[in-house]
């Protein structure tokens, strides 16, 4: 960061703010003010015109740093969060505002300087690519709202997009003025994390309330005072004032609520988010939801009061798929995407990012679930770059033995450790001049993360047992299916390394988010395996294709490919008419008639513990408790529950 750039500190603890001022001025920065609240910060921004802002999340007054962040993004002022809170929900909400860094208090002077340096680099790259525009969730909701699928399916997908920043277990959307419950929307989050919709008729049956009582209880809007957060006493008071909320909360064990009002054409609507936890919602969540009001307006306009579409995806007119390879009609998409098939908006957005960043040397972080094609994206980035004639070295970080990670990545000298009988050239040296793809970067242990950070900053490596450094010219591409923010918050991944790698993220959508591509993918796989001569299948019936489009594909494209290959082998004739989908999964990871469903060990362990907890009605300790059944100490089970993100409603 250039010397004498002006930095505004927005922090309500004077001692912390003053320490920051001393550190920054010592390093050559100019501190143009200290603000304890959003109101004061906006005054100083108008008069001092800072280049950067260091921003605490919880501040004096009604507004938080999250509220200010939305305005800073609109003004084009880059900012870094400084907060003592590493709660995962807070991190997700902060992430949605696109900061250039996040420092956890207390931090060292060196941490601050490194974070500022990383932030400057990321800001330069974002200006270069014009990449730092609006939070991705706006784009996600806009894309989902315009999909040609049913209202129910769109609302489920929108719920999944909103959940990380505004967690909820029940969402009630209703018209508050003029009062009407005829088109109420009720969305429930089940124990396995899926979202389901209930119309009013089915919900009344579920909670055992008559239609007459429901109408009598819902003659007025839920909230009149403008209050939005209902925790503890406030939620108990809300229950007393609203028999309907009381019945909902009793039936679904709801303990808190967040209410936001949206006006459309003179009418008021309420989005009421409920949660099982009694003290979950804070000013941060109300700030985030305020930033997403335009998205919620879109949900009202295009989804809830739009025209329903009965078919999830239009079925093909003929019983078979005759075009094995997708026709690329969009001229903005490069011709060669290395076998990546799809025409969906989300996939095209990833392609555009890829095309933009490929010719450069910027670090790229590819995010996506297992089976979404992250390695193909890495190969394509290399293939479209000036380094295409140099090596692309792929490293699966999850497969590296702990004792050999440094030797594998950076090499070693002869005799540097027992068994080192000869000199070894590490993966980074092998990739010199080209690219290195570090797959499953979230699996890298902390010691190796420190060495990787040095490579990124200094562009040099040192072999184990060596006494000199070697300069290298390598482009680094990384990928993970883990939530790195969660790994950071739990101390398993370095924050400075995360921000250094996350300069240019490319998010690959899950297959359930781009079901419109299933038809083209199925056609491609039928063509691929048909050419191998192992099957005479050349197409698929509309009914079978519809089944594939209604499934949620937890194993993504990899799972679809394996299922198509297996089904082709079992099909007599030229057309697939029957699909054996894995509708119910056991904790063993097998489904149906021993059909393998791709799961990580962590997913299988989580599912198994959830099943036991449900069987024990949430009891952990003592006779008949989950710990006894699993034959592990209750302390071990508690730590697993925390690590696997199992929510408190399953634990007593």
UniProtKB/TrEMBL annotation:
Molecular functions (GO terms): ATP binding; DNA binding
Organism: Pedobacter psychrodurus
Keywords (A to Z) from UniProt: ATP-binding, DNA-binding, Nucleotide-binding, Phosphoprotein, Transcription, Transcription regulation
Domain Sigma-54 factor interaction: residue ranges: 340-569
Keyword Transcription regulation assigned: yes
InterPro entries for this protein: AAA+_ATPase, AAA_lid_NorR, CheY-like_superfamily, Homeodomain-like_sf, P-loop_NTPase, Sig_transdc_resp-reg_receiver, Sigma_54_int, Sigma_54_int_dom_ATP-bd_1
Keyword Ligase: no
GO biological process, one term: regulation of DNA-templated transcription
SMART domains named in the record: AAA, REC
Entry-annotated residues carrying 4-aspartylphosphate: 56
CDD domains, A to Z: AAA, REC_DC-like
Domain of life: Bacteria
Residues of the Response regulatory domain: 6-120
Protein name per Swiss-Prot or TrEMBL: Response regulator
């Amino acid at each position: 960061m250039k010397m004498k750039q002006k930095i505004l500190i927005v922090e309500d603890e004077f001692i912390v703010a003053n320490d920051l001022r001393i550190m920054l001025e010592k390093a050559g920065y100019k501190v143009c003010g200290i603000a304890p609240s959003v109101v004061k910060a906006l005054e100083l921004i108008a008069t001092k015109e800072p280049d950067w802002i260091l921003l605490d999340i919880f501040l004096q007054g009604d507004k938080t740093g999250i509220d200010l962040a939305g305005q800073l993004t609109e003004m084009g002022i880059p900012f870094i969060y400084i907060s003592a809170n590493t709660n995962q929900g807070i991190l997700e909400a902060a992430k949605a505002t696109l900061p250039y860094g996040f420092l956890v208090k207390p931090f060292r002077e060196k941490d601050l300087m490194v974070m500022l340096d990383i932030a400057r680099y990321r800001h330069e790259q974002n200006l270069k690519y014009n990449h730092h525009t609006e939070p991705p969730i706006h784009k996600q909701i806009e894309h989902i709202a315009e999909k040609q699928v049913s209202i129910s399916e769109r609302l489920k997908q929108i719920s999944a997009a909103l959940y990380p920043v505004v967690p909820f277990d029940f969402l009630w959307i209703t018209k508050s003025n003029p009062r009407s419950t005829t088109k109420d929307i009720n969305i429930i989050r089940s124990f396995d994390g899926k979202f389901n919709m209930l119309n009013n008729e089915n919900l009344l049956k579920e909670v055992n309330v008559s239609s007459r009582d429901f109408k009598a209880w819902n003659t007025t809007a839920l909230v009149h005072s403008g209050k939005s957060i209902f925790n503890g006493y406030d939620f108990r008071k809300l229950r007393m004032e609203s028999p309907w909320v009381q019945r909902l909360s009793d039936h679904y064990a709801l303990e808190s609520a967040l209410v936001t009002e949206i006006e459309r054409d003179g009418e008021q609507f309420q989005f009421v988010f409920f949660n099982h936890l009694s003290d979950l919602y804070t000013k941060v969540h109300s700030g985030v939801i305020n930033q997403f009001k335009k998205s919620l307006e879109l949900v009202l306009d295009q989804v809830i009061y739009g025209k329903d579409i009965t078919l999830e995806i239009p079925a093909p007119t003929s019983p078979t798929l005759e075009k094995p390879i997708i026709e690329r009609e969009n001229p903005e998409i490069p011709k060669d995407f290395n076998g990546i098939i799809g025409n969906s908006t989300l996939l095209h957005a990833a392609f555009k990012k890829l095309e933009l960043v490929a010719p450069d040397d910027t670090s790229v972080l590819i995010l996506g679930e297992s089976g979404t094609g992250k390695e193909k994206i890495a190969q394509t980035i290399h293939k479209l770059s000036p380094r295409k004639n140099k090596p692309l070295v792929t490293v699966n970080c999850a497969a590296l033995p702990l004792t050999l990670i440094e030797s594998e990545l950076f090499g070693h000298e002869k005799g540097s450790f027992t068994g080192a009988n000869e000199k070894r050239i590490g993966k980074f040296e092998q990739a010199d001049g080209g690219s290195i793809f570090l797959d499953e970067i979230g699996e890298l242990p902390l010691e190796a993360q420190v060495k990787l950070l040095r490579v990124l900053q200094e562009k040099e490596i040192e072999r184990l047992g060596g006494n000199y450094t070697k300069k290298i010219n390598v482009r680094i591409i990384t990928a993970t299916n883990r939530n790195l923010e969660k790994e950071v918050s739990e101390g398993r991944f370095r924050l400075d390394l995360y921000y250094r790698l996350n300069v240019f993220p490319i998010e690959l959508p899950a297959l359930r988010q781009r079901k419109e591509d299933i038809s083209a993918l199925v056609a491609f796989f039928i063509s691929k395996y048909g050419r191998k001569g192992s099957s005479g299948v050349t197409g698929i019936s509309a009914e079978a294709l519809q089944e594939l489009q209604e499934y949620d594909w937890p194993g993504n494209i990899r799972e679809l490919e394996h299922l198509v290959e297996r089904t082709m082998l079992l099909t007599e004739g030229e057309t697939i008419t029957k699909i054996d989908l894995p509708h119910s999964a056991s904790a063993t990871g097998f489904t149906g008639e021993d059909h393998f469903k791709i799961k990580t060990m962590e997913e299988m362990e989580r599912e198994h513990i959830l099943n036991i907890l449900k069987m024990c009605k949430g009891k952990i300790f003592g006779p008949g408790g989950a710990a006894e059944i699993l034959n592990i100490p209750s302390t071990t089970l508690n730590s697993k529950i925390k690590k696997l993100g199992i929510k408190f409603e399953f634990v007593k």
